[in-house]
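From the shared-data thread, chain only:
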Amino acid sequence: MNHLISRAAAPIALALAALLPVSAHAHRGWMLPSATVLSGNDPWVTVDAAISNDLFYFEHNAMKLDGLLAFAPDGSKATPENLATGKYRSTFDLKLAQKGTYKFAMVNDNLMASWKVGGENKRARGTAESLAKDIPANAEGLSVSRNQSRLEVFVTSGKPTDTVLKPTNQGLELAPITHPNDLFAGDTASFRFLLDGKPAADVEVTVIPGGVRHRDALGEIKVRTDADGKFSVKWPSAGFYWLSATHGAAQRPAPGAAPAGPAGTLDKPVRRASYSATLEVLPQ
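Structure, as C-alpha cells:
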C-alpha cells in the first residue's frame, strides 16, 4: 500500500532514521533480549524493542513490530508470542524449542520520493509502481531514494549453530566470522559486511556499549571494513553493545527537503542501506 506523506508526517521519517548510526544524542532503534545464551530443557527469551536517545533505556518511542521476523536454528520461521506495544517499548516472547542459534530481525525496504508542485513540498512512500501513480506530471525537483534497513539479534540455546547466520543477499548484512553468541571481554571478534551478498568495502562500523545514560563519554569504537568487507572489534568489557553501519547516502533529508547529493529517479533511486545489531559480550 502506498501513502502520501505531509510535512507533518514525522513518525515515518523517525522510524527510518532510528536505525542510523548517529550522534550521542540522537534516536537509535534497538532490540534487547533478556539473555543471548541459554541452557536447560525449556528456555524462553523475552525481547524488548524501542527507539531511544540512551541505548537500552525506554524513554522515547516503542518500536513497531510489523516487520518482525524470527528464525529457528533449522532456518524455519518461528512464531513469537505475547506481542505487545506500549508507550515506550514493544515486547515479545519466544520459547526456544530447538537447540541452537535463533535470529530475530526487523527488515524494511521502501522507496521515498519528494517533489514540489506550485512551490509546495510533497512526499510519498511506496513501490515504484505506486509512486509512478502518485507523482504528477508537473512535479518539480523530483528526488527518489531507496531505503533498506535491517536490525538483528541472535540468541542461542545450548551449542551455537550457524544456519541462521547465512546471508539473504538483500541489502547490507552482517556475516559473522566469530559467532555472535561467542563473544568475550578482552577477546577480538571478526565479522564481515556484505551488500547484496558481495563484500562491502570501506564501510564505517560503529560499536557503542550500553549504559550511555550513566557516563559522560559515548565510548564508541569506530572501524572500517577492508576490501573483503571484514573488520574486527576487541571488546573492552562485558555487557551489551549496539553495532551499526550504513552504506550509501550519508544522511536522510528533513521532511520536505531534497536529498543531499544526486537526486535519484524511479528507475535509479539513490540507495541507502543500513544495519544494526545488539550483541552481548560475556565476561571471561
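The longest helix spans residues 10-17.
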